[in-house]
Write a structure and sequence with these properties.
Layout lengths: L4 E6 L3 E10 L2 E11 L6 H12 L5 E6 L7 E3 L6 E3 H7 L4 E6 H9 L7 E5 L9 E6 L3 E9 L2 E7 L11 H11 L13 H14 L9 H10 L3 H25 L4 E4 L8 H5 L3 H6 L5 H4 L4 E4 L4 H16 L1
Helix pairs in contact: 3-11, 4-5, 5-6, 5-7, 6-7
Length: 322
C-alpha cells in the first residue's frame, strides 16, 4: 500500500478528508482538509470536492463515520447524509473501501499519539490489564473501548452515548422534563454534546425565567468563555459536570479502569473552563464505588486528526488481512 489512500472523519457537522501514506512502515497523514457538511448535498459531493482539490484518485479508502455501522447502508445519527457503501465504492472506483464508527477510528489512533498530544485532566496509575474508555462530545457523544488482548489491543465501538440520562439534582430533573417535551426518551447525548449545550441553554433560560436569544453550540461556548452571558456560563459548567458523571458511569459499566481518553470537538475549545469545572468531582462521585474510579487517569486529546490516523491504521490493517 505505497500509493496514497483516502481517509475521512465524517461527523454531523464537518467532513474531514486526508491522504495517508506508508513511510518505512509508519503512517503519515497529509493534505488534511475540512468541509462543512451543510454545504454539500451528499457525502459523495464532499469527497469529489476533496479529490478534485488534491488531484488524486486513490484505490483504497477508510471512512470513520458518526453512527453505527451495521449493514451496507450507513445513516448518520446527526446528519441527513446517507452512505451506500457499495455504491460509493463503485462511484469512486475504489478497490478497497472500509467504513468504521468514528470513535472506533479515534480509539485506533490513540496508540499513535505522543505525550504532547494529551493534556492531563486527572492523574492516576490505572490498571493496564483493564479496558480504556475513549469518549467525547461533538455534534453527538461518541464512545469506544480499547481492550487489552494478550500483547495486542482490540478496539470495540459502542453506542454508549445513547444510554438513558439519569438526573440527580432538581435542576437536572427540570432539564430532563424540558427535553422530554420534545423527545420521548432522553439519552445522555441529549445533554452532553453540541445538541446538549443547546438543550441545556434553552432549559436554563426557561427555568430561570430569562429571555434568551437562540444560540448555536459554538455561540454558547464562545459567550461562556467571554463571561458575557451568565446563562451561557452556567450552561457550560453544567455540561462539564454532566460529562464527568457520564464518564464515571461509563467506567463503572465497562470496567474501564485502564483510563479515560477524552476527544471530540468541544472540549479543546473550552479547555480552561473545562479544567476549572467540577468534571473530576462528578467523575469521582460514585458513592460506595468511588474507590473503583479513584485511580483511573483521565486525559484530553489536544491534537487534531486522531480519527484520521485511526482510519489510516484500520485501512492498513484491512490491507494486511487480505
Amino acid at each position: 500500500m505505497n500509493e496514497p489512500f483516502l481517509v475521512a472523519d465524517i461527523g454531523g457537522t464537518n467532513a474531514r478528508f486526508a491522504l495517508a501514506h506508508l513511510n518505512n512502515g509508519e503512517i503519515a497523514v497529509e493534505e488534511p482538509r475540512s468541509f462543512r457538511a451543510e454545504e454539500f448535498e451528499s457525502l459523495r459531493a464532499a469527497a469529489d470536492a476533496y479529490l478534485g482539490a488534491v488531484s488524486v484518485k486513490p484505490k483504497t479508502a477508510c471512512f470513520a463515520v458518526a453512527g453505527p455501522v451495521t449493514d451496507e447502508q450507513v445513516e448518520f445519527t446527526n446528519s441527513p447524509w446517507v452512505l451506500h457503501i457499495e455504491d460509493f465504492k463503485k462511484a469512486l472506483s475504489l478497490t478497497r473501501f472500509r467504513v468504521v464508527n468514528d470513535f472506533e477510528a479515534l480509539a485506533s489512533g490513540v496508540g499513535s499519539l505522543r505525550d504532547k498530544d494529551f493534556l492531563e485532566v486527572k492523574p492516576g496509575a490505572g490498571d493496564p490489564k483493564a479496558p480504556t474508555l475513549v469518549m467525547g462530545p461533538g455534534t453527538g457523544l461518541g464512545q469506544a473501548l480499547i481492550v487489552p488482548f494478550g500483547e495486542r489491543r482490540r478496539v470495540v465501538s459502542t453506542e454508549g452515548g445513547h444510554v438513558s440520562f439519569a438526573p440527580r439534582t432538581d435542576e437536572e430533573i427540570a432539564l430532563m422534563q424540558f427535553i422530554r417535551r420534545e423527545h420521548k426518551r432522553v439519552s445522555v447525548e441529549r445533554v452532553v454534546s453540541g445538541i446538549g449545550l443547546v438543550n441545556i441553554y434553552r432549559a436554563l433560560c426557561e427555568i430561570e425565567g430569562a429571555a434568551c436569544d437562540p444560540k448555536r453550540a459554538d455561540e454558547i461556548t464562545a459567550a461562556a468563555l467571554k463571561g458575557a452571558d451568565p446563562i451561557a456560563v452556567k450552561t457550560a459548567n453544567m455540561f462539564c459536570a454532566l460529562l464527568g458523571r457520564v464518564a464515571g458511569d461509563a467506567v463503572l459499566g465497562a470496567g474501564a479502569r485502564g483510563g479515560v481518553v477524552l476527544g471530540g470537538g468541544i472540549l479543546p475549545k473550552i479547555r480552561d473552563l473545562f479544567l476549572s469545572s467540577t468534571f473530576v468531582e462528578r467523575f469521582l462521585d460514585k458513592g460506595r464505588m468511588q474507590y473503583y474510579v479513584e485511580d483511573v487517569p483521565v486525559r484530553l486529546i489536544i491534537s487534531d486528526g486522531t480519527a484520521l490516523l485511526g482510519a489510516a491504521a484500520m485501512a492498513k490493517e484491512a490491507e494486511h488481512a487480505n
